[in-house]
Design brief:
- The chain is α+β, with helices and mostly antiparallel strands.
- About 40% of the residues lie in helices and about 15% in strands.
- The chain is built from 6 helices and 5 strands.
- The strands form 2 sheets. A 3-stranded antiparallel β-sheet has the order 1-2-5. A two-stranded antiparallel sheet has the order 3-4.
Length: about 180
């Protein structure tokens, strides 16, 4: 949901016009940003708390050059979720997987113990190793044959000589 969708949702729930809802949403964001910028903590019970925290100065590395870079200390906004907000998100997360699985796909029949592999459903077959060691372990009779590489030189050797054009054609006619 972006800002304009939020404004539409607020207008629908409040039963007012979008222009009025936009002013209210903008006023809310502006008030929160001003208060947090001033060092105040904005607490909306059940929703969360907006706050300001300080990051100390540190040294980092430029990923491109690897040169050390000094990062100055900074004040950054933070948000902590309220308990009501957490519970609402957790409930929607619990409901989503149940909706995704059709009821016909869930089996209520008992499965015999010998049908389940050792280690339960989590047991998986091992994937073959890749790399030099795995290649060394292969026996010569099982090693697959590699196809010859086709590069520019190999393709040129396989095909007929190319027709000359331009200056190369003129050189062959003049005998140079």
């Amino acid at each position: 949901m972006n800002r304009s969708e939020l404004v539409k949702a607020v207008a629908e729930r409040a039963g007012g016009e979008e222009a009025v809802a936009r002013r209210h949403v903008d006023a809310l964001f502006e008030a929160v940003m001003e208060a947090v910028s001033a060092g105040e903590r904005v607490v909306v019970t059940g929703f969360g708390a907006f706050d300001r925290s300080s990051r100390p100065a540190r040294s980092a590395r430029n990923p491109r050059t690897g040169a050390p870079v000094e990062v100055p200390a900074a004040l950054v906004p933070t948000f902590r979720f309220g308990q009501t907000f957490r519970n609402r998100v957790a409930q929607s997360a619990d409901a989503a997987p149940a909706e995704a699985v059709p009821t016909e796909a869930v089996s209520t029949e008992a499965v015999p113990a010998d049908a389940v592999p050792a280690g339960g459903a989590a047991a998986r077959t091992k994937k073959p190793k890749k790399g030099k060691k795995a290649a060394a372990k292969k026996t010569p009779d099982k090693a697959p044959e590699k196809a010859p590489k086709k590069g520019k030189k190999a393709v040129a050797a396989d095909s007929a000589p190319k027709k000359k054009s331009g200056k190369a054609k003129a050189r062959t006619k003049s005998g140079k």
